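Pasting two entries for a bug report.
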Amino acid sequence: MYRFLLSPRWLGALALTLVGAAVMVLLGNWQLDRYRGRTEVNERIDAGQRMAPAPLSDALRAPTGGAGTTGPAPAEDKVWTRITATGRYDPTNTVLVRGRTVDSRVGFEVLTPLVLADGTALLVDRGWIPPAPGGATAQPPVPAVPSGDVTVVGRVHETESGAGAVDRRDGRLETRRIGVPRLARELPYPVYGGYLLLDEQTPAADPVFKAVPVGHANNWQNFGYVVQWWLFAVMALFGYGWVARREARRAAGIGATPKPLDRAAEPTPSPSA
């Protein structure tokens, strides 16, 4: 009944179905890995919000080069660690990061180097401020930094990818992305390989700053793709089986509609005597 499945045409269809289903399963596994990775990131973000601040050295290794060099990037499991550090802000090398959105408004994030006692510096994202009147790219007045020693508490953020050019406009450094190695080349001291997203500061930060929100990765979207690709694989196999069964039933005549009788072809009955 199913011998036709051994024909070249059906064997070819089976091979294509199996290959397609295998590719779909692999795509589902890839999305499952992404789901797990993003879930781990979200868990670290949540843990960082709850944990007591640790010393800077627990999350970032100090830079060992000269001026303009960068220390090692934070290990993956150290990103979003809540840390504390004490030093003095260097307002002459403040960096304005343009095109940043908070509460649906485009403005600037303000990065100021915190110079530590050993002469190294940690870039601190002090928060978001709106642009000056005149447009989203108009440089705003930046609140002054506290004088003397400042203690900061915040979460370690890795350098952003796709860092572009760093310009000096109106005496200030300005960029579009926070690329720590690129920014470090503009600074007169060695810089840690990650930056700090500020949560708290002593003395207190100027209230004009708005905290930069930390968005969670959309891991459930990846989980949805996992289910989608695996369902496609099952549907491909089911579809092959359904078509094969229909073909077998057709060949066996099962379920076939009987042909209508051709009355015209029947012999004319002879008149009775």
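Entry 2 (this is the one that rendered wrong in the viewer):
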Amino acid sequence: MARDRNTPDRYSTALGRLMLGALIVMLLGLFLLWRIDNPRIERLRMEITDRVIPNFSAVTAPVTSAVNILRSARSYTRIYQQNQELRRELQQMKAWKEAALQREQENARLLDLNNVRLDPKFTKITGVVLADSGSPFRQTVLLNVGRRDGIVDGWAAIDGIGLVGRIAGVGERTSRVILLTDTSSRIAVSIESNGQRAMIVGDNTSRPPLEFLEAPETVRPGDRVVTSGDGGVFPSGLLVGQVTQTQSGRLRVRLAADIQRLEFLRVLRHQPREIISNAGDLVGVQLSNPSGKP
């Protein structure tokens, strides 16, 4: 029984040796076949090559495809990485562009502010807008100039083009400006085309209405509106805006100042005109010799 169990192992060992010997003989034959220099052997080699190579190409095609796919995957990975880098650079360039545009707009506003033609008798203080009220019922802004800079309640505040509002509340380092659009704002103005007096009444809209016009029919859209100086609150001649007309026929003012984008404001030092109640005050120096004789 032990001999029967060992019989298959001997057969497999003998078969393996036989196959190994056959493989060695075949390889040796192929080696000799490829090394023999004979025309007949050369033709045989060519026939074997013609028959084997096409089939070998078909066998290696999946391997070639796999290699190409691997190369494509690596190329795609590199392209993806480059795309991500370009995206990051594009975001940085957008941020730089936005910063450059903001600086350009800021410089333009400062240049406009410097180019405003004012009466030489007025002096001014330029302040930066710190914040606004953030309330739909009260339209004010806060400036970084105050009592230490000589700011006084009631002074006019303008941007690079036109009137914005007036100072209403002064602290040591800050002051508050009530905008023309605020409901508590009342500004005496005149229409340049005919000199007609009116009042701009704030109503929390970007285009406050014109009130108390004596002859509204003589006012045309596009007429310039300036401060009249009545009441001594504001100096006369400050640009406020232009007349517009709604579909209902109501006259309003399109403000020259960009109320929605205030960054810098110029506060005008304006002293109200002296009110003379006594005619004798007109004489500045008493004449010691009224006759004029020597």
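Dev reply: Rendering is fixed now. As a check, the viewer should reflect this: The first strand starts at residue 123 and ends at 132.
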